[in-house]
Amino acid sequence: MSTTIKRRKNEIHCLKNESNQWDSNPQNIQSMFLNHFHRIFRSSNPSFPANLDNLFSTIITAQDNEFLCQIPSEEEILSIIKQIPSSKAPGPDGFTGFFYKTYWEIVKTDLIQAIQSFFIHGKLLKEMNHTHIVLIPKNSSPNTVHQYRPISLSNVSYKIIAKLLANRLKGVMHKFISPNQSAFLPGKIIQENIILAQEVFHVMRRKQGRKGLMAIKIYMEKAFDFMEWSFILNIFKCLGFNTIWIQWIKECITTVSYSIVINGSPHGFFQPSRGLRQGDPLSPFLFILGSEALSRMLLRQEQTKSIKGISISRNGPSLSHLLFTDDLILFGSANSNTASVFERTLTTYCQWSGQKINNSKSSIQFSNNSRQATKSAIRHILQFKTSSSKIKYLGVPLNSGSPMKSHLNDILVKIQDKLAGWKSKLLSQAGRTTLIRTVASTIPSYTMATTLLPVNMAKKFDRSLMRFWWGFDIHQQHKYTPKAWSSICKPKSLGGLGIRLTSQFNKALMGKLVWHLISNDSSIWKTAILNKYMSTSDWVNVKAKYSDSRFWKCIVKLNDFILSSVSIQINNGTATRVWSDPWLPSLHPPIPSPQIPGTYHYPDLRVAELTLENPRRWNMLLLNTLFSSKTIAAIQRIRLSQYQFHNIHDQPKWKHHSSGKYSVKSAYAAFILHTNTTEPDIIWKKLWAVKLQDRLKLFLWKVYNDILPTQLSLSHCLPIADNQIYCSLCHMENESLDHLFLNCIYSRVLWRNAPWPLDITCFAQAGIRNWINIILNPSDKLQISVSEVHNFQLFSTLAMDTLWFIRNQTIHNVANHTIHYFITKTMELYKEHAKAWEMKSTETHHNWRPPESEDTFSITFDVAVRNNSSTSLAVCRNHQGIFQFIVAQNNRYVDPNLGEATAAFIGVQEAYTRQIAKIVLQGDSLNTIRSINNPHQAINWETEGVARDTRFLLQDFQEWKAVKIHRSQNRCAHSIAQWAHSNLEFGNIPLIKVPTCLLEFPSGKDPPSVIY
Question: For the Reverse transcriptase domain, which residue ranges apply (predicted)?
Fold first, then answer.
């Protein structure tokens, strides 16, 4: 419905022509758009020196070119297809990403051949590179062709090629892109430029003396559409890219052809001679490459002292410009000379690249101490107007105070308009929850990533979302809200719905910036900020002064919490201070205290000094001297790397996420826990994991929280007569959830006729929460067989949902439904839902299979965790399934991930000792397998050391691979690990000790008579 309405709203029935006359003739409208885009995409025949004034030097090496010019393999092509969104609008051929993913086995041969053909011959089929231009209105009532934004819809087959090239280009761009650009580059975030620009404006507001400062916001007109191809290709040549690569890029951008989609149908056909498609995976990176020429021009002018940028601190880096794709802002001294240099540089860049500056939308802002005569001279040189105080960069106000308040009010209005347009009365509560979580609550996130909102504004955002969720008009005073919004906004694991409370979400977003500042990465914004505010302090003692910027004051407010969430990962241990750094994640607080309080032996002691070498281990004699038994236990839970650790420095890790990297989701949960004593309850994990529709899960959640508006609950906050509180179905008792679902005659009769006959009244005394627990755990409570669990959960939930529906029909529609109707309706719905779920694949059990090759050995591994310790175990068998060794190790740590990784390590270590050349490492822990196969991917920070040790040993094997297997295929290692843990069997375990019932042999084999 909404899609149809939107499509009709965007239909074009009339437009103003060049004579400013309305024209409704469809042919004339088509001609207007075709002529408009013909003009836009017609080359300006740019003129530039072949060497681009030596702005670029050959920096791409032969090794880089070899990487860039590879013919893609099937695996690389498939990985690209997986990255392409499934449901985005298709190109002219009509095939979406979902089609290629779903029918990969059918189309892969032809598709791979077509893609590899391009990389071999350097030619694209014209049909593959044909593109539809769809028109997106720039405002609510566009009336000219200029008020439509063109978006390109390319074929997915072309996008695969473009994304292959883009991913490879992204891998080398760090070599030649200046730090003043922060768009689309790995490790860069958009907030970097916003923060730097805000800090510069903070300096400008406080500027005193005779010399003024200025900031110039440049608006590039149709930046992507005007970019010249020859200019981009020349930059590639200057940087030393191979001619094969340049030909591939040229083929992609110069062989494009367009048709324009007007009112759902494509019209016309033309070939452009310039421009980059918006929607093409290559376009952002090619545009950044073109912008790099401007960046280097400005940096050269700064190096030759022709201009002087603005530094936000005495020893900090100077900033003459910031670039984020086509968003450009210039900084410098407010004088005619600087203005003239800027004007000449911009003119040259536009002549070379085809770019065009929109003078009417570009603007200048001066510091308060700038002289009026100087301002007039600069405006005359640049032909730009002076900006008001509401100047924005990347959509965020650069001035605090009134501009920020106005901006936040605009966001609030935008949220309220969005919510009002959704018509809450026509949506289910599950639908409202999804819309709030995915759309409405994210609207202010861009602003919240760089500043903490005022408390009253955050409450206004929450109030709007709350009213929409409860189904009230956005401005209506709510009456019935039986559960606090702060509780609803908890993470699902804590009993909420995962809707984010604005103030806590705001902190989680901004906390990411604190994390970037305290972590070990380097960037221009971090250098500038730390030079300004941290030159004479450290993170533990940092304070904010009255004169500091709003951004820094927000950072300081969050600092304590973020620091308390950091744990130091011990690698070589040389930099971590024993008495002041948070290096013990299992200890609270994570910084140890001496055994005798107040007596700090060796005040500058480092963690490396607590270890011994060959093999690397903790120095227990020293530990017993310095620490209590509790602290020693926490230290022993840290596994020390054995190989190649000397050159690996200790790293700060975010302890609320297994990867050790900061995530907004984990930070939000941590902030909620920090302000609330609620602990995660297993009931919530089970509720959200049950195989039901989201609407039915929400229904169970509402029942469990007693927030359904029964007559009894409504009577607590609304004036209801006593005779209206009775159950509307049986009229026997007050209508509560306990009565309706456990005592009412409707429920009793239904359950007597159910596939699982029950006397439902037996559960009434324990209450509705207990009944929900039974639904989620029917095997434990009712001895329902495992194969019937899902059907029981489905029937039970549908029975309650249908009863609530009939109750509402009876009250609001004055309907009279009999018990027979209720039973029939429930059974029909149950059969319908059960049939839909039958299509889901059922879990199958597999047996372990030995390696096919005679000289390859299988090593399966697992861990048993119990009683504050764990046992890691590995089993090695040959191609006949004959056991070669069983090795186990007792650990002081109880983290199952670390235990699994240790099990893999001891298996590989034992195989290495026995000089086995070829192995297949098999386990049911996906995290462990990934951490071994992907050394550069952060999986689990506490297992990084053992995974690195495992990879170090594996490099000496002739052949190895690590594969994930099903749990049922790992029964042998699992069972023996449990047995070894219970019986304290460690080291090399003789096969004769292991109970035969725990051993697994290939089908048809008897246990071997010879023991290794």
Answer: 117-398
Q: What is the mean pLDDT of residues 539-557?
A: 89
Report CA 660 to chain centroid distance, whole Å. 14
Q: How far apart are CA 33 and CA 135, in angstroms?
A: 10
Query: How large is the C-alpha radius of gyration of the chain?
Result: 33
Which pLDDT value is given to residue 929? 94
Find the helix or strand (DSSP H, E) in which 798 lies: helix 789-812
- How far is 532 from 282, CA to CA, in rounded Å? 37
CB distance 994 to 975 below 8 Å: no
Question: CB-based contacts of 171: which residues, under 8 Å, 6+ apart?
Answer: 67
Most distant pair of Cα atoms in the chain: their distance? 101
In this structure, are residues 881 and 642 in contact, taking their beta carbons and an 8 Å threshold?
no
Strands 327-333 and 213-219: what pairing? antiparallel
Residue 541 has pLDDT above 90, yes or no: no
* Selection from 817, 845, 857 nearest residue 959 by Cα: 857
Nearest to 131 by CA among 162, 170, 166: 162
888 — phi, psi (to 5°)?
-135, 150
**DSSP tally for the chain: helices H, then strands E:** 38, 25
Percent pLDDT > 70 in the chain is: 95
Q: How far apart are CA 572 and CA 610, in angstroms?
A: 11
- At residue 181's C-alpha, the angle toward residues 179 and 187, to 5°, is 70
The encoded tokens of residue 930 equal 């990934």
- CA-CA-CA-CA dihedral for 674, 676, 682, 685, to nearest 10: -80
pLDDT at residue 1004, as a whole number: 41
Report the alpha-carbon distance of residue 717 to residue 709 in Å, rounded: 11
The Cα 498–Cα 811 span in angstroms is 32
CATH class of 179-228+278-399: alpha beta
In which element (H, E) is residue 993 found? none
Residue 816: predicted pLDDT: 82
Distance between start and end Cα atoms, the chain: 71
Spatial neighbors of 427 by CB under 8 A, at least 6 apart, are 435
Distance CA 902, CA 966 (A): 19
pLDDT of residue 1006: 42
Mean pLDDT, range 430-438, rounded to an integer: 89
Q: Rounded to whole angstroms, how far apart are CA atoms 75 and 55?
A: 38
Quote the pLDDT of residue 477.
62
User: What was the pLDDT predicted at 183?
Assistant: 80
pTM here is: 0.87
**DSSP helix/strand/coil, 1002:** coil
Q: Which of 484, 512, 510, 506 is nearest to 676 (CA)?
A: 484
Distance (Å, whole) CA 82 – CA 450: 32
Domain boundaries, the chain: 1-40+61-171+230-273, 179-228+278-399, 511-662, 710-838, 857-998
How far apart (Å, rounded) are the C-alpha atoms in residues 828 and 820? Answer: 12
Tokens of 8: 């009709």
Spatial distance between the Cα atoms of 556 and 464, rounded to a whole number of angstroms? 29
Closest C-alpha to 928, from 945, 940, 920: 940
The helix, strand and coil proportions of the chain, stated in percent and rounded to the nearest 5, come to 50, 10, 40
CB-CB contact of 166 with 146 (8 Å): no
Q: Which of 309, 311, 314, 316 is nearest to 530 (CA)?
A: 316
* Average pLDDT of span 469-488: 78
User: Spelled out in words, what is the top-level CATH class assigned to the domain 857-998?
Assistant: alpha beta
What is the DSSP code string of 939-968? S-GGGHHHHHHHHHHHTTSSEEEEEE--GG
Query: Residue 335: CA atoms inside 13 Å, Cβ hemisphere, count?
Result: 9
- For residue 164, the SS3 value is helix
Amino acid at site 678? T
pLDDT band at 476 (very low <50, low <70, confident <90, very high): low
Place of tokens 């456990």: 742
Cβ–Cβ < 8 Å for 874, 904:
yes
The whole-angstrom separation of Cα 643 and Cα 909 is: 12
